[in-house]
């Protein structure tokens, strides 16, 4: 959906729709009266604590905190096909944050994407998911945010072109795509499953990344969890279209979400690294619930996929002697730059995953692999965490393409990628934005032997 | 649990500081100790044991002057400082001097370069020797000129008479002129006239280091040199059960596989060939391992329940003063790594029955003894030459690598062998800084002053340095292994685990007990500051806890308990430089902390004030700035001293906030920079300011280790200041801070 | 046999294509500056410049260097005629043991070649892959700032930058 003509088309559609809905005055929302910022002591400590966990599931801090800056003070640039949108200040600062927001104003923002003053918010703030968050949970998150430190940080102006810079346009988008239903429990399923469903569809907003979007930037309901794009990364399909060499199950999902890595799948990186860093701090039962629900979404693997998974695992354990190489340069690069970590047999997360188990290599396009090759994995400050050097400086596009083709041929049974060099060139241009501005994972993936140790 | 506390009178500090040792030492240079009591008067520093002047200074007929030291350059600027001292007292131009460092054939045996003792030992020796040499040269000139010595002066390598007649040192020196014993006291120059000492002379070793010169043992390339790699056991005590080397012997470049019991190494022509062969060999080797390690997450219990020998090392009482409010606290420190950036390396060459080893050890003489014993060779046939390595901060893998190289070279006569440890080997096998536990209890009197003070420290020895073969890995792994020597507590006043355990403050009642634990679950040895790091961290954290209890400002509270004027001066200087004001409120999310110590209670004084920011959401701490004041006696090179203190603060910050060795029941699991994270640039402070209080004419106090303890405590105190929570277990990690905030 | 261009000279190197550059530089070409620190891309001690960019030589196989220009610290200047970055590190006395310093200097040099006036924040971010155990960080930062100023004056005097 990146062609300029398609964007123009979408703009026109939105503008039209906006015009129509304006007539119905849907675009107009009243301001909610400002309040005096409540004293932090006014909130119940247990409620705040619950809010903290929920905010972590909602990933609030990662979108609303810029590297090196104050927590929740906003300003993170979020690249979208329509321009760059900056996250807002959600500290209780009276002037530039949400200090004057009542709980009702906060709930309205979560539920319908309208700020206290009555302006529509861009759906980069995933209210299309948050709309299902219960009153109770909204209250807890509100309590948590209102007890953070107020930071004076005025909003940065979004970089959007006309007419997308006109907020009433958003009203049209909402009319088309925002469905305001509270979560309806499925009584045929377990409480755990229902909890998972509620979190996944709502606060955790998994679909925001893992569901593909249409030309207007809305999630395609028909293709839920079929894989999406976010910040120049590909968020893998996590439904039955998943291409992971070993199929996921609830236990693996749980371990991965909780610890940040799984021996059969590798270590989370890119935007997912932030998500798992958050999930490592919330209630265990919530992570388990998400895993249980998602495992059902992705469904039991077909016998075929199961067999392939077993084969991949077997090969990872005892790699077959290398066949003669059609690509000796790729093989040499792999031997020196990759195998020294990925083939030592050292357990994850400090040993690299055997690349035969890597979804990045069996994925539909090499973007994630390129991103990770270019920038590597940075150390988490002062914490045990995996480190991978970046190779942006040492490999040119042709060399990197050679390596990618080698990896694809050797470690997956998928057809060769096309346009690899272009992907690399694009990634060199775009990839760095988010990595340089986001605060990054705020804690390290768990070390199997070191969890809960200093 | 522990054996009953025995008051060991021989170890009790008598009065102001005199002490009788309870341990006789096999070497006069056992690590980190003050010279033993001896009949006075003795010449100063290492002249006491190596009295001949020509062991220190040689002058050739052409006027060329060479200065010898048994100490080693470890990146602390030792060469430059010693050269300054010699140039000053000899009255020659700084750059004309040559300096030879630790070499068992050429230099005095000055034991280890450790304990911040180099200036006290070697600096004092060279200074006094140089002064005496100058005196001898002047006397000789007086004789030749038939003029009284008083009328002569020295300048730029020559003696000059009142009428301008000039005799160079080269002219004056005669065959055995300097082969005389040092006098107990030389007339040193008046510090007011210093031209070279006290100046920030640029370090002599830096130009090569920033232009790619051969600066390190790692850079040595001898003709015919081959490359060796070791395959170490996967864990302590693992036994090599099986190793089929046939295929590996055929790998390209492989010259030899050396196996002796559990010692396994491979030698190849080229370096990368040796690495490939090492990987293959390591895959072929099968080991039998035993689970022998203690529980890492409960070091408190582990340490306090191991059998200990208990010494009351200080007791002072004044029944007239009694406490009213009492608090107690327990502080812990994990095992920590030296973590040199360059893994250990050595080159050895065995030829014509003689072994030469180039090594970055801190002690060429003790190492020679160990290596000779291991090789069953007479020490005279073994020569060790110090060549710089990466910074070591104590006893790291250097000595072990030297032994490795020697053992392999013995199997390859005639070919120089270079052994380079891999990163995992350095992290997994170096002897760590020991874990420690301190228990403190103190009371305040009615006036908010400390009435009584109880301090107990539980720790291993802090030095397992060589001296005998048994200290070295290669010797332990041989088929006929050498036993690890019995660990001993290091004697006071320097001490080991009890270094700085005795409070430097004046408390009316005080008692300090050292629980020495002989058993060493992990391989440990000397790490920068030894026990002082944790003891000062504990004492100075607890001082803040007591100040809080008294409602007093931390700086005032310290001054209230300290008579020592030089101590008071550094405290005041650091406070003033920091802008410390009682009752001040730091900026949002920031806290201020203060700490002070006199290293070993008899060396350099150091006070540090810190400002730390804590992110309340993540718990992540950041040292924003630190201001230090240091009194190291007569300053030789101010910039060098500042460099040392800056480094100490930054390194101590990394130890304090991040670092702990990790292990499971069998293996060490912190084996690289992923698993043993240290400071990176994103956490480097905004500024570090060091104020020096120079004490012209006062003895050199050394400064390499003085900053570690105060830096740790000032950071801990600042964290307590900003969070309102006291953390007592090192390291003060993000997670621990976060948990404390959330608690 | 492969031709490797190092500091402006061609070297015939007889090593496997998967040999990391670090060992070629140290062992075959007998250069000292690039240091072995970890061999894993975790510490920065082995950093050299390849075609203007800082590269970790311990994870860069020879095969990647066909036709590229490698610059090591030795190629920037000498004790007698130090490059601005070398002068800056000498003038700031920015070393303790110095083992990490060569790598730091090479990355700083690459940074200054593409951005002659980096901010303090940019320098810190750039040097993040590098470890220094001695705690020389404050001086390293000062030296990089000084090098930027020195290069600036050198430019003003139109002597050009010294890096090839
Ligand atoms: S030696 Fe290359 S990064 Fe450490
Ligand atoms: S100066 Fe020693 S490691 Fe940096």
CATH top level of the largest domain in chain C? Answer: Mainly Alpha
Strand content of chain C: 5-15%
Oligomer: heterotrimer
Q: Going by CATH, what is the homologous superfamily of the largest domain in chain C?
A: [2Fe-2S]-binding domain
Helical amount among residues of chain A, as a percent range?
40-55%
Taken from the alpha-carbon principal axes, the silhouette of chain A is globular
CATH T-level topology of the largest domain in chain C: DNA polymerase, domain 1
List the helices and strands and how they pair.
The complex is a heterotrimer of chains A (454), B (743) and C (164).
Chain A: H1 4-23, H2 45-57, H3 60-64, E1 77-80, E2 83-86, H4 103-112, H5 127-130, H6 135-146, E3 159-160, H7 168-177, H8 191-201, H9 207-210, E4 228-230, E5 233-235, H10 250-259, E6 261-262, E7 266-267, H11 271-279, H12 284-298, H13 303-317, H14 328-342, H15 359-362, H16 367-375, H17 397-411, H18 420-430, H19 432-437
Antiparallel strand pairs in A: 1-2, 2-3, 4-5, 6-7
Helix pairs in contact in A: 1-7, 2-6, 4-6, 8-12, 10-11, 10-12, 14-17, 16-18, 17-18
Chain B: E1 57-59, E2 65-68, H1 78-90, E3 97-100, H2 118-145, E4 153-155, E5 158-160, E6 166-168, H3 169-172, H4 206-209, E7 226-231, E8 239-243, H5 246-249, E9 254-260, E10 263-268, H6 271-284, E11 285-288, H7 299-305, E12 309-316, E13 325-333, E14 345-351, E15 354-359, H8 364-375, E16 382-386, H9 398-411, E17 417-420, H10 423-429, E18 436-444, E19 450-459, H11 473-477, E20 509-516, H12 532-550, H13 554-560, H14 565-578, E21 590-598, E22 605-614, E23 621-631, H15 638-658, E24 687-692, H16 708-723, H17 734-742
Helix pairs in contact in B: 1-2, 8-9, 12-16, 15-16
Chain C: E1 2-6, E2 9-13, H1 21-28, E3 47-50, E4 53-56, E5 69-71, H2 84-91, H3 101-114, H4 120-126, H5 137-156
Parallel strand pairs in C: 1-5
Antiparallel strand pairs in C: 1-2, 3-4, 3-5
Helix pairs in contact in C: 2-5, 3-5
The structure holds FE2/S2 (inorganic) cluster (2 copies).
């Amino acid at each position: 959906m990146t062609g300029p003509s398609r964007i123009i088309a979408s703009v026109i559609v939105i503008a039209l729709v906006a015009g129509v809905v304006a007539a119905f005055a849907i675009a107009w929302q009243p301001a909610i009266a400002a309040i005096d910022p409540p004293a932090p002591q006014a909130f119940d400590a247990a409620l705040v604590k619950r809010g903290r966990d929920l905010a972590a599931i909602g990933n609030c801090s990662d979108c609303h905190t810029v590297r090196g800056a104050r927590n929740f003070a906003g300003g993170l640039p979020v690249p979208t096909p329509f321009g760059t949108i900056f996250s807002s200040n959600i500290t209780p600062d009276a002037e530039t944050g949400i200090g004057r927001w009542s709980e009702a104003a906060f709930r309205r923002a979560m539920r319908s994407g309208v700020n206290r003053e009555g302006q529509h918010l861009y759906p980069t703030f995933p209210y299309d998911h948050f709309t299902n968050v219960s009153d109770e949970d909204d209250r807890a998150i509100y309590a948590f945010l209102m007890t953070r430190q107020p930071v004076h940080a005025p909003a940065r102006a979004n970089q959007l072109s006309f007419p997308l810079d006109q907020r009433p346009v958003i009203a049209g988008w909402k009319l088309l795509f925002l469905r305001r239903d509270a979560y309806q429990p499925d009584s045929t399923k377990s409480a755990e499953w229902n909890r998972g469903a509620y979190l996944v569809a709502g606060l955790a907003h998994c679909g925001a990344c893992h569901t593909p979007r249409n030309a207007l930037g809305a999630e395609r309901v028909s293709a839920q969890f079929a894989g999406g794009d976010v910040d120049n990364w590909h968020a893998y399909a996590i439904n039955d279209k998943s291409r992971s060499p070993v199929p996921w199950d609830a236990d693996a999902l749980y371990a991965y979400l909780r610890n940040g890595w799984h021996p059969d799948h590798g270590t989370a990186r890119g935007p997912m690294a932030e998500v798992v860093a958050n999930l490592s701090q919330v209630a265990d039962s919530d992570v388990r619930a998400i895993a249980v629900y998602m495992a059902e979404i992705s469904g039991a693997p077909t016998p075929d996929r199961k067999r392939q998974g077993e084969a991949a695992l077997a090969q990872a354990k005892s790699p077959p002697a290398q066949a003669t190489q059609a690509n000796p340069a790729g093989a040499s690069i792999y031997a020196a730059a990759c195998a020294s970590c990925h083939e030592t047999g050292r357990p994850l997360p400090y040993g690299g995953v055997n690349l035969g188990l890597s979804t990045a290599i069996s994925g539909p396009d090499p973007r994630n692999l390129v991103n990770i090759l270019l920038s590597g994995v940075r150390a988490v400050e002062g914490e045990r965490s995996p480190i991978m050097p970046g190779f942006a400086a040492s490999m040119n596009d042709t060399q990197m393409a050679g390596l990618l083709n080698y990896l694809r041929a050797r470690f997956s049974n998928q057809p060769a990628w096309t346009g690899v060099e272009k992907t690399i060139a694009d990634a060199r241009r775009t990839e760095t934005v988010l990595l340089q501005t986001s605060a990054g994972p705020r804690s390290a993936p768990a070390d199997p032997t070191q969890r809960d140790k200093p | 649990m522990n054996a009953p506390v025995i008051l060991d009178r021989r170890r009790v500090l008598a009065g102001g500081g005199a002490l009788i040792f309870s341990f006789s030492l096999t070497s006069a240079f056992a690590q980190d100790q003050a010279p033993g009591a001896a009949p006075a008067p003795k010449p100063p520093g290492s002249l006491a044991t190596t009295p001949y002047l020509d062991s220190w200074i040689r002058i050739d007929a052409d006027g060329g002057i060479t200065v010898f030291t048994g100490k080693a350059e470890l990146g602390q600027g030792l060469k430059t400082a010693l050269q300054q001292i010699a140039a000053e007292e000899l009255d020659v131009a700084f750059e004309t001097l040559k300096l030879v460092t630790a070499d068992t054939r050429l230099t005095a045996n000055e034991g280890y370069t450790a304990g911040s003792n180099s200036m006290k030992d070697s600096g004092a020796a060279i200074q006094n020797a140089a002064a005496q040499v100058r005196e001898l040269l002047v006397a000789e000139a007086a004789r030749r000129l038939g003029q009284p010595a008083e009328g002569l002066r020295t300048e730029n390598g020559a003696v000059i008479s009142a009428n301008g007649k000039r005799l160079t040192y080269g002219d004056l020196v005669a065959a055995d002129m300097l082969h005389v014993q040092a006098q107990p006291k030389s007339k040193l120059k008046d510090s007011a006239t210093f031209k070279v000492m006290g100046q920030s002379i640029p370090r002599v070793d830096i130009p090569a280091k920033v232009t790619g010169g051969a600066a390190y043992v790692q850079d040595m390339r001898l003709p015919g040199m081959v490359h060796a790699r070791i395959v170490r056991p996967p864990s302590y005590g693992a036994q090599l059960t099986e190793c089929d080397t046939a295929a590996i012997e055929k790998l390209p470049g492989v010259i030899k596989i050396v196996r002796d019991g559990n010692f396994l190494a491979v030698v190849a022509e080229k370096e990368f060939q040796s690495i490939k062969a090492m990987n293959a060999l390591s895959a072929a080797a099968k080991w039998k391992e035993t689970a022998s390690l203690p529980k890492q997450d409960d070091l408190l219990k582990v340490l306090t329940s191991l059998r200990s020998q208990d010494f009351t090392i200080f007791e002072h009482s004044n029944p007239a003063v009694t406490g009213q409010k009492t608090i107690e606290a327990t502080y812990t420190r994990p095992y920590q790594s030296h973590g040199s950036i360059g893994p250990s390396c050595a080159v050895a060459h065995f030829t014509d029955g003689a072994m030469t080893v180039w090594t970055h050890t801190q002690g060429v003489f003790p190492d020679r003894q160990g290596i000779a014993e291991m090789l069953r060779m007479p020490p005279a046939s073994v020569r060790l030459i110090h060549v710089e390595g990466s910074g070591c901060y104590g006893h790291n893998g250097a000595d072990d690598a030297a032994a490795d190289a020697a053992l392999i070279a013995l199997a390859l006569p005639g070919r120089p062998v270079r052994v380079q440890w891999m990163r995992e080997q350095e992290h997994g096998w170096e002897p760590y800084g020991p874990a420690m536990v301190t228990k403190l209890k103190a009371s305040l009197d009615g006036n908010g002053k400390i009435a009584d003070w109880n301090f107990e420290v539980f720790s291993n020895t802090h030095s397992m340095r060589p001296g005998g073969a048994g200290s070295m890995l290669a010797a332990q792994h041989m088929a006929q292994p050498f036993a690890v020597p019995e660990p001993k507590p290091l004697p006071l006043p320097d001490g080991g685990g009890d270094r700085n355990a005795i409070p430097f403050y004046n408390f009316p009642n005080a008692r300090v007990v050292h629980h020495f634990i002989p058993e060493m679950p992990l391989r440990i040895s000397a790490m920068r500051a030894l026990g002082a790091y944790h003891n000062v961290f504990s004492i100075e954290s607890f001082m803040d806890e007591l100040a809080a209890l008294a409602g007093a400002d931390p700086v005032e509270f310290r001054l209230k308990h300290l008579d020592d004027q030089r101590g008071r001066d550094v405290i005041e200087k650091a406070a003033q430089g920091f802008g410390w004001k009682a009752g001040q409120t730091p900026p949002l999310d920031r806290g201020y902390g203060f700490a002070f110590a006199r290293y070993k209670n008899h060396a350099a004084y150091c006070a540090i004030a810190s400002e730390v920011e804590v992110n309340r959401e993540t718990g992540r701490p950041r040292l924003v700035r630190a201001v230090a004041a240091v009194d190291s006696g007569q300053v030789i090179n101010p910039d060098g001293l500042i460099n040392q203190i800056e480094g100490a603060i930054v390194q101590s910050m990394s130890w304090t906030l991040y670092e702990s060795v990790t292990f499971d029941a069998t293996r060490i699991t912190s084996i690289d920079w992923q698993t043993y994270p240290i400071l990176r640039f994103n956490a480097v402070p905004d500024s570090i300011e060091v104020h020096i209080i120079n004490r012209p004419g006062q003895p050199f106090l050394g400064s390499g280790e003085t900053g570690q303890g105060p830096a740790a405590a000032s950071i801990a105190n600042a964290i307590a200041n900003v969070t309102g929570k006291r953390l007592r277990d090192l390291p003060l990690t993000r997670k621990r801070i976060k948990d404390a905030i959330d608690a | 046999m492969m031709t490797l261009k190092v500091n402006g000279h061609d070297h015939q190197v007889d090593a496997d294509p998967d040999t990391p550059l670090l060992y070629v530089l140290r062992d075959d070409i007998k250069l000292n500056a690039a240091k072995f620190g970890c061999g894993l891309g975790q510490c920065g001690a082995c950093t050299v410049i390849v075609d203007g960019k800082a590269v970790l030589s311990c994870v860069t196989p020879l095969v990647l260097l066909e036709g590229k220009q490698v610059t090591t610290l030795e190629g920037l200047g000498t004790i007698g005629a130090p490059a601005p970055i070398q002068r800056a590190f000498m003038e700031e006395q920015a070393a303790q043991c110095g083992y990490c310093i060569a790598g730091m200097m090479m990355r700083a040099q690459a940074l200054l070649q593409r951005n002659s006036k980096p901010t303090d924040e940019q320098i810190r971010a750039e040097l993040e892959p590098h470890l220094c155990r001695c705690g020389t960080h404050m001086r390293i930062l000062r030296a990089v700032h000084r090098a930027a100023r020195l290069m600036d004056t050198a430019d003003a005097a139109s002597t050009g930058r010294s890096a090839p």
